[in-house]
Write a structure and sequence with these properties.
The protein is of the alpha/beta class and 173 residues long. The chain has helices at 22-34, 50-60, 78-85, 103-110, 125-139, 144-161, and strands at residues 12-16, 39-43, 67-72, 90-94, 119-120. Helix 4 (103-110) links the parallel strand 4 (90-94) and strand 5 (119-120).
Length: 173
């Protein structure tokens, strides 16, 4: 049943309902890599591979996974089903699908029944990157080296936000 990719030392599992989610979720993977977080990425459909998803969720914590990022479009049940199968934090990334520009996916993740939480992010690339950053933020609470990398990332991001090269008063002038 273990027909999914595992990575030694992975702390985050990135799951996608379809390979078509990879161009968006690759941004989450890159963000995690850039911040030095070991992670694994898998396509495991909640509908077409329910037993594989159940096995993955049941064994994730024992392998060191601490957070799951789940991306799916359309009905987008992956995050909710995973949340029902594990107590690990689930971060949901709604994907734009064939209809409603991702609204159906967003609502599928955000409107979870009481007791089965899914932390739902924005539709598409912004949500994928923010899911990775939220995972890093949570992990950094118990990892001082990761905390320092994350704070440096945040500081650099803030500095870049207020930088207007070539504008009067800019240091590069």
């Amino acid at each position: 049943m273990n027909d999914y990719t595992t990575v030694d030392g992975a702390r985050v599992g990135v799951l996608m309902g379809s390979a078509s989610d990879w161009p968006t979720m690759e941004k989450a993977s890159k963000t995690l890599s850039d911040l030095g977080v070991i992670h694994e990425c898998n396509v495991i459909s909640a509908h077409r591979a329910a037993k594989r998803l159940e096995h993955y969720c049941q064994h994730a914590e024992a392998r060191g996974i601490q957070i799951l990022i789940c991306a799916a479009g359309g009905a987008a049940h992956l995050a909710g089903v995973a949340a029902a199968m594990t107590h690990l934090p689930i971060l949901g990334c709604p994907m734009k699908a064939w209809s409603t520009e991702g609204l159906d996916s967003l609502l599928s993740m955000a409107q979870m029944p009481k007791g089965i939480p899914v932390g739902t992010l924005a539709v598409g690339s912004a949500g994928a990157i923010n899911a990775a950053l939220l995972a890093v933020s949570v992990l950094s609470l118990s990892d001082d080296a990761l905390r320092e990398r994350y704070l440096a990332f945040r500081a650099a991001q803030s500095e870049a936000t207020f930088s207007l090269p070539g504008a009067p008063g800019h240091p590069s002038e």
